[in-house]
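#struct-help
A.M.: can someone run this one for me? Single chain, 764 residues.
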Amino acid sequence: MENQVMEYASGNEMAALAIKQIGYDLMGYYPITPSTQIAEGLDTMRANGETDLIMIAAEGEHSAAGICYGAAVGGGRVINATSANGLLYAIEQFPVQSGTRYPMVMNVVCRTISGPLSIKGDHSDIMFMLGAGWPILFAHGVQAVYDFNIIALKLAEAVRLPVIVAYDGFFTSHQKRRCMRFEKESAVRDFLGEKKEEYPFLDLEHPITVGSYMNEPDLINNRYQLHLAMAEAGKILPGLFREYEKLSGRSYESVEGYCCEDAETILVLLGSSYETAKDAIDRLRKKGKKAGALTVQTLRPFPAEELFSCCKNARTLLVADRQDSYGAGGGNLSLEVRAAVQRFGRESVSVQIKSLVYGLGGKDFFVEDAVNMIEWAERADTPDFEYYGVTPGKEKGTAGEGCPERSAGLPDAGRRQDEEPFFAPLTAEKTKLGIIQVKEGEAGKVQVSGNSLNATAAIPKRLAPGHGACPGCGIPVNLNLLLRSIEDPVVLLFHTGCGMIVTTPYPRTSFKVPYLHNLFQNGPATLSGLAEICYRKQEKGEIPAGDIIFIMVSGDGGMDIGMGSALGTALRNHRLILFEYDNGGYMNTGYQLSYSTPKGARSATSHVGKNQYGKTFFHKDMPQMMAATGIPYIATMAESNPTDFIAKAAKAAYYAKNHGMAYIRALSACPLNWNDRPATERKVIETAVNCCYFPLYEVEQGKTALNYDPESMGKKVPVLDWLSMMGRTKHLQKECYASVVESLQEEVDRRFLRLKARAESPVL
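D.P.: on it. Structure tokens below:
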């Protein structure tokens, strides 16, 4: 047995440690809670020279999966990590990788699937991967996360399949436990051995084709080979577990049982709940009840025979799912267990199987819950399938009477009362005050009057007080400035992000106007569909005619992962506004780098260390990308120039009503992650404008106009003046980073000169 040392660490930290010790070549990643910490930890190690892992920050999970696939085809050892809707966004890629038989490992930190949006842990994401052709190891504790990451790679390369290591979000990913790890990386690497490529893709003297188009006879043969590979994985896993036990002293099985030998009732579940269930079994055993618990550690290939062997003597099996396969009478684990018993027990075994769905959205699971579940299953009058821990609610128009009762006799957590809206809806009459005057002037350009701050303050706020944003957050500031300019009724769509999270904590909302949320990779497309159906209904007389301004609100993260959707919407030129608040990072998930983060800036995925100075590439120029689509109006704005901000917002609304799409972008403060003080944010933003990092301009009907020129006004300052005002970039003041600042200054100057040239020439 190899020497080991103790670590007090979380599941994500142990995953990152295993990845480092394995010596992977490449990681393609995109941040998503709760898996983000894996990439953050690895980036810290990379910055400090502890690993030479290539880390590629994708603009979304779909691209991250593609990056990983390409690297795997090229012969690299490849790792990925994701969760929930990130997994679903990339899911198209996963059967490609298994179908072409390229090994890699992916950690899936299990989280509930939207919508509605929830970031808490359950198993609704991982079940989508059951038919993807990936073996799935499911860790129920922090130690197993480390061990399974090592075993998974050896399994992947043995059967030439990509493998998933799954574990519970927050319950396992974030909770710290005492764990053991190998003292020397060589122990891990010797266990794995050298990677062998049977068909090297980069052997130019023997070229191969991967991913061929296949007709019917060939495709079924391909799928049969995949079936055989999965079956082989099931055959060799016990041997891998024994081999790893000799190395580590830790024993694993595809099915782990607790007090199952003589148990009359067995509770079957996945993940961290198994540890809680074992405590419940101890409590019931003291009362004289023969109860047991069982968990599956190999979800694919499913260990049907092993499971049946563990529970064949029981009278009742209660399968608890943290997920529902809606309409099937139980979650996927329940269906697998029922199939296993039917397959191997047939008529010789008389066992009653009951199913419960529990713990969705991260609802806590306590020892008392496990006890209640087992006692419920032992009753003869309970149904075969039920939900546990539901708060039923009440029928509309009642005060609690008529509320549906729980037929299963499970605990009722109480009833929610209907509540009247705190704020009355805003009517068109309340907002159309005639303060803002917008009209087309000479050469088709739009002119705005009445855009003073004092005058526009009379327009009712669409955003109610009481949101949960951090002190100094620029999102509500920018949103209120935007909506001050628009007197027409508005419909809002928010991407996932800080702005959405802090304004809509169920059952409350901060919006006095119609509001919709969709995931940030598809917000623009969703809004285009909503807008077009509205215009159609107005044409048909199904809803009142009149101008409605459709506005999508997104952070710069949403405009990264949603870049394709945004550009597609722009190219179609729908009548709507895309409004981006640019705070230069993925702030909602703890500040990872975005494509708009300044070069050199410190973030959770661009650390500063002896081998890294922060983000290594320049910030994205989204307004110019939008300008290339030919939409009628593009503008940048900043709260340091409020009248300019309001005028541009009014223009955007006019264009959205009359001509097509408008894209507007505001620099938005984030004191928490910029690492400065809320009271200084206006000055920080002003300096970003004056150093020309964030120039104020507009592109109207293809013609560029520079609205504020700090150079001609004698207000231009070096970029370093701005960088020095924020903790995330203060390190760039050091002499050793002078070349980074110089390159950023050169790029900022180049972009500004191009803007000035466009403003001075009607053909640019």
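A.M.: thanks! The domain at 468-606+617-716 is CATH 3.40.50.970 (Rossmann fold).
D.P.: also worth noting: Residues 397-417 have pLDDT under 50 and may be disordered.
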